[in-house]
Write a structure and sequence with these properties.
Blueprint (H helix, E strand, L loop, with lengths): L1 E5 L6 H16 L4 E5 L8 H9 L5 H25 L3 E5 L2 H10 L8 H12 L6 E6 L2 H10 L4 H6 L1 H16 L5 E5 L4 H16 L7
Parallel strand pairs: 1-3, 1-4, 2-3, 4-5
Helix pairs in contact: 1-9, 2-3, 3-4, 4-5, 4-8
The structure holds thymidine-5'-diphosphate (TYD).
The site of thymidine-5'-diphosphate has 13 residues, from α1 and α4.
Length: 212
């Protein structure tokens, strides 16, 4: 089973991923769950991940392709083997991040880029998530949250408008009806958000039999 958490910076996604990993490992056993992240979720992937995020590039498609290269390695080395071994993969960001950040978030990307991205991504044959949990929060609330913990560099660098575009990019993907998307109101307390995630995960796991 393949579960992905998505959301803009400051949505609380990384904290919720860590809590969910412990919850599932407690329920199903440590070996049953593989927690990973993009970019850079593979051994040696840090340099590519850092360059994909912060590299000085002037063509939007270059950045898209760096995130795709990172994903190719991540899928080949971590995600696909774990799924084949019958494990549950919990991934902090995946394809939807690239579409939301690099395509919908970037006004310089030409009309039709979302469709082109979908075709490129399909050509790689990446595994499809069984569920994408979208931690939804306004850019304004996310910025307040990040300021409180002194980490709003991303907002200072990219601006609130960018994160509003990314948020709408996520919502458009959810509405485009591919299925498997769960919308979670992330503007609430950490515990409230986690309880809702657990409700959904318990339902999803059902009588999940772990074959490790
Ligand atoms: P990270 O420090 O992991 O932030 P977080 O824990 O909030 O996810 O940085 C991930 C950054 O990478 C984040 O700003 C979004 C960006 N990103 C993209 O722009 N496109 C992508 O395809 C992925 C996977 C991440």
């Amino acid at each position: 089973m393949f579960i992905v958490l998505e959301g803009i910076d400051g949505s609380g996604k990384t904290t919720q991923c860590a809590r969910l990993t412990s919850y599932m490992a407690g329920k199903l056993g440590q070996d049953a769950v593989v927690a990973t992240r993009e970019p850079g979720g593979w051994e040696g992937g840090d340099a590519l991940g850092k360059f994909a995020i912060g590299g000085d590039l002037c063509c939007g498609w270059s950045r898209v392709m760096l995130f795709l290269a990172d994903r190719c390695e991540h899928v080949a080395r971590v995600i696909a083997p774990s799924l084949e071994a019958g494990r549950i993969v919990l991934c902090d960001r995946y394809e939807a991040s690239t579409l939301a950040y690099q395509v919908y978030g970037d006004p310089s990307m030409p009309e039709g880029s979302a469709g082109r991205f979908a075709a490129m991504s399909a050509a790689m044959g990446f595994p499809r998530p069984d569920a994408v949990l979208l931690l939804d929060i306004s850019a304004e609330d996310a910025e307040v949250r990040l300021s409180a913990r002194g980490g709003k560099d991303a907002f200072d660098a990219s601006g609130k408008d960018f994160f509003e575009r990314v948020r709408s990019g996520y919502l458009r993907q959810m509405e485009s009806g591919k299925g498997g998307w769960i919308l979670i109101n992330a503007a609430r307390s950490e515990d409230e958000v986690f309880s809702e995630i657990v409700l959904f995960i318990d339902k999803l796991l059902g009588n999940w039999a772990v074959r490790v």
